[in-house]
Amino acid sequence: MAGTWLIVGLGNPGPRYEATRHNIGQMVIDELAARRGETLRAHKANARVAETWLRPGAAKLVLAKPNSFMNVSGGPVSSLAKFYDVPAERVVVVHDELDIPFDTIKLKTGGGHGGHNGVRDVAKALGTPEFPRVRVGVGRPPGRQDPADWVLDPFGSAERTQLPLLIGDAADAVELLVEDGLLAAQQKHHAPRA
């Protein structure tokens, strides 16, 4: 679908959080940039950004990682959407999702935030929850571990072996969403794996 799309990976800034579950959205942005040989650079909207294309002659992509902490992601996202004149329906937010098992991707537009404070803040800043989301499953913590601590932990060793595939699948989902729309991306990524 033509036009400019803003693809935002949610996470927390700094090396302490880089490899944590909460930052999988930013890992997906890194993958999308790497596929295109792009480097993210500082932007005045308190984010790092790479302007690129889905493929030659196709939609323009603005890949972005807010420099703010997760719970206040809305400001940078809203500023970028205004700067690039991108409507909410073309702001794709990629984020971790506790209620989806690890190694699973789900896509949706709109709806609630499911307790995800980053998504809540983006919806508030955009003035609508009606934006597409690529929800990357990180699963619930084992035992009685607090979910807030779980998402700030690095992936376990077994998960790390699967992580490149999961990040690749999420990047594929973003590309398909932009190219063919939400339904096509849902049909491919919500189906059980063969």
Automatic annotation (TrEMBL):
InterPro entries, alphabetized: Pept_tRNA_hydro, Pept_tRNA_hydro_CS, Pept_tRNA_hydro_sf
GO biological process terms, semicolon-separated: protein quality control for misfolded or incompletely synthesized proteins; rescue of stalled ribosome
A cellular component annotation (GO) from this entry: cytoplasm
UniProt-annotated location(s): Cytoplasm
Site for Discriminates between blocked and unblocked aminoacyl-tRNA, residues: 12
Broad enzyme group: hydrolase
Record-listed tRNA binding positions: 17, 69, 71, 117
Chief place of localization: cytoplasm
UniProt key word Hydrolase: yes
GO molecular function: peptidyl-tRNA hydrolase activity; tRNA binding
Active-site residue list: 22 (proton acceptor)
Reactions listed under catalytic activity: an N-acyl-L-alpha-aminoacyl-tRNA + H2O = an N-acyl-L-amino acid + a tRNA + H(+)
UniProt keywords, alphabetically: Cytoplasm, Hydrolase, RNA-binding, tRNA-binding
Transport found in the keyword field: no
UniProt-listed Enzyme Commission number(s): 3.1.1.29
Protein origin, superkingdom: Bacteria
Cleaved signal peptide residues: none
Family annotation (PANTHER family): PEPTIDYL-TRNA HYDROLASE
Similarity remark: Belongs to the PTH family.
Protein task: Hydrolyzes ribosome-free peptidyl-tRNAs (with 1 or more amino acids incorporated), which drop off the ribosome during protein synthesis, or as a result of ribosome stalling.
Record note on quaternary structure: Monomer.
Name of the protein this chain belongs to: Peptidyl-tRNA hydrolase
Species for this entry: Microbacterium telephonicum
Lineage, uppermost ranks: Bacteria, Bacillati, Actinomycetota, Actinomycetes, Micrococcales
Gene designation per UniProt: pth
